[in-house]
Amino acid sequence: MKIDVIGDIHGCYRELCTLFEELGYHKEQGIYVHPNGRIPVFVGDLTDRGPDSIKVIQLVYELVFKNKKAKYVPGNHCNKLYRFFLGNNVKQQHGLETTVEEYEALDSKMQGHIRQQFIRLYEEAPLYLELPEANAVVAHAGIKKSYIGRHDKKVKTFVLYGDITGEFDEAGRPIRRDWAQNYNGNTWIIYGHTPVLKPRKVNKTINIDTGCVFGNKLTAFRLPEETTISVPSEQPFNAEKFRSFPDE
Q: What is the mean pLDDT of the chain?
């Protein structure tokens, strides 16, 4: 199995198209297909903050359900948008407001289509994806070795939000433990969620959220090659959104 795991897109549709082209995919009947049958895997957070969240939803939906090869796992922003589409009272902040604004600009028929597409995408997605053929697990914010195989509330919180402590830093961002330092498995854990300036490999884990929506890059991790490919962002650069680690 040959896969291309794609980091947090956050509505950066143009960069996603550029990345597909860089990875060797060709657009056929509105979807991207690789001549060698490679499978795109989305690590979550498709929407919010960026300029084209609706287009990203449509493209990923088509790839997952029309092409029936692409895979997707949800991120915390996906979870929030899902709850919004269910009619829950969700605060429109931290980027959700940009997706809602796009959505509300559509006519009612198109709104119905987008809402149905995203609800199906979310409800039929696994919390995290085990890909034994690729020796990999894809989880939005990562996953501990001991959590693989579990799907309880504790694991869901970890997969969507990371190893949170419940505390916040001076900028109001949640403080997360660096769980990857303690990972000792032989299976790749591929994740995103925390923006970093370059893909971060620790043990057999890799964070590929290179902060496209904050002006850096959109990154894919390829298996079995164990290589990364990135394309530059078209968004304005915002240095304060990126996390650095003591080992860097």
A: 96
Query: What is the maximal distance between C-alpha atoms in the chain?
Result: 51
Is the Cα dihedral 155, 161, 162, 164 positive or negative? negative
Residues 83-98 have a mean pLDDT of 96
What is the rounded CA–CA span in Å between residue 209 and residue 43?
A: 9
Q: What angle do CA 158, 210, 170 make, to 5 degrees?
A: 65
pLDDT in tens, 214-228: 999 999 999 999 999
Q: How far apart are CA 3 and CA 11, in angstroms?
A: 22
Residues 6+ apart with CB under 8 A from 110: none
Q: Give the span between the Cα atoms of 196 and 185, in whole angstroms.
A: 23
Which pLDDT score is estimated for 195? 96
CA–CA distance, 156 with 159 (Å, rounded to integer): 5
